[in-house]
Amino acid sequence: MPDPRQAGERTAAVGQAVAWWNLLPVALIVSDGTGRIRQWAKAAPELLGYATGEVIGRDLTDLVLFDHRREARAVHDAVAAGRSVTGQFPMRHKNGSTIGMEVWACPVAAQGEEGWDVLLLAADAREARQAREARQLREVGGPLDALFARSPVGLAIFDNGSGPWA
User: Fold this and answer.
1) pLDDT mean values, one per 10 residues, the chain (166 residues)
2) DSSP letters along 120-160, please?
3) pLDDT of 30
4) In terms of C-beta density within 10 A (0-12 exposed, 13-18 middle, 19 or more buried), how is residue 51 classed?
5) In this structure, are residues 9 and 24 in contact, taking their beta carbons and an 8 Å threshold?
6) Sheet holding 98-109, edge to edge
7) Model pTM above 0.90
8) Long-range contacts of 52-59 (CB under 8 A, 24+ apart)
């Protein structure tokens, strides 16, 4: 599940999330070193259903399904210690449903204190996977390029401009 990275790689972990910023609703959540939510912004209310006032001061792991809280705490503590982490967690929406979230977490300087706060960028895991697959189709050297390069017959794609490679 989580992919702990060395502190020097924190830009890479968040860079991947920032790439989705214009494609997906991305939650921006900041918690302090103890795990208390300090900031709840961007698509966080939309994705998880909680208004800002309902979560500020709560422990971040309260939003993770009970069976995954120990793992979520370990990830949070790793980031609070200066490491970057990526992973997926099932989280509880305010309406009681479960949503798989892809999470990119990195340490940021604590507000007015020593140590690290934790910056989390999170998106619906299913939507992130679909965006990643669509992006791979568009990239030079991706699966479509390989198909065209290796095909024994001529191939063409006719598109009305609404496909993922438009």
Assistant:
1) 44 54 85 93 95 96 92 89 88 95 89 85 89 65 57 58 52
2) EEEEEHHHHHHHHHHHHHHSTTSHHHHHHHH-SS-------
3) 94
4) exposed
5) no
6) 3-5, 84-92, 98-109, 116-124, 27-31, 37-42
7) no
8) 54/94, 59/34, 59/35
Strand partners, 42: 27
CA dihedral 46, 119, 75, 56 (to 10 degrees): -60
* C-alpha to C-alpha distances, 159 to 48, 88, 144, 149, nearest whole angstrom: 36, 34, 14, 20
For residue 102, give the H/E element and its range: strand 98-109
Whether residue 109 contacts residue 39, with contact meaning beta carbons closer than 8 Å, is answered with: no
Q: Which two tokens stand for residue 147?
A: 């198909």
- DSSP-derived letter for residue 66 is G
- Beta bridge partners, 89, equal 101
